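Chain A, query sequence.
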Amino acid sequence: MHLGPGRGVIERAVRLALDEDLGRGDVTTAACVPADAPGAAALRAREPLVFCGLEVVREVFAQIDPALELRVGATDGAPLDAGEAALTVHGRAASILQGERVALNFVQRLSAVATLTRDFVACLPAGTRTRITDTRKTTPGLRALERHAVRCGGGHNHRYDLGSAVLIKDNHVAAAGGVAEAIRSARAFAPHTSRITCEVDTLLQLGQALEAGADVVLLDNFDDASVAEAVKQVAGRALVEVSGGITLERIELLARAGVDVISVGALTHSAGSMDLGLDWIE
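Chain A, predicted structure.
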């Protein structure tokens, strides 16, 4: 079972999407389908995937027509083969047709994030402590939903927003006057419960970050040999995160090198869409 985003988040996202698609009505359905005609449709995977988006689909149809009935066959995080149905929806045909595209837009996107995350997690060697995490490179307005999809794929979440953790990036270093200066300022400002993460671009900066007392060092765009050398230099004094240029082929090597966290922006910014369809049931 995966703890999903709050109901308020889902309601707002769905309301905005429906207003975008149905704000002026549905002239095609009004013209072609009798108002009270019954209908039913199955939400099916058309390729193997990790399903995600059940509560969003439920909310889409509930906002359009609370009388619609969903019969659920798969919960979030469940693998589906091509042809398998995640759910069926029954009720007024017009209501089903009006919600079809919005429901599919959500579930296709969220299932893609979950499936891509599953692919990355599957590359980790057995028994590793290394985590695959997302980043803040999410679709505006859909962060909570996409982060839920990452968890459904077996991944973990990074910081939620700018207020949730201290993460010193390259531009912070430049604006503060250097790695050590940025870390010292962050340490003086942050509460004692906060870890200080500092992104570094070179092994020289890594040494500066360790000397200044960073709790986590983020190796940005390091090649594999440099990652191995960095882990050796850290020697357990800080957690090691890597990011930038992360591919499926690199995951096992990075994990075996002793990296604690692999953050992958592609989980959300490059996931695309999975192929699911709403097939009419005669």
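The chain has a mean pLDDT of 96. The domain at 124-269 is CATH 3.20.20.70 (TIM Barrel).
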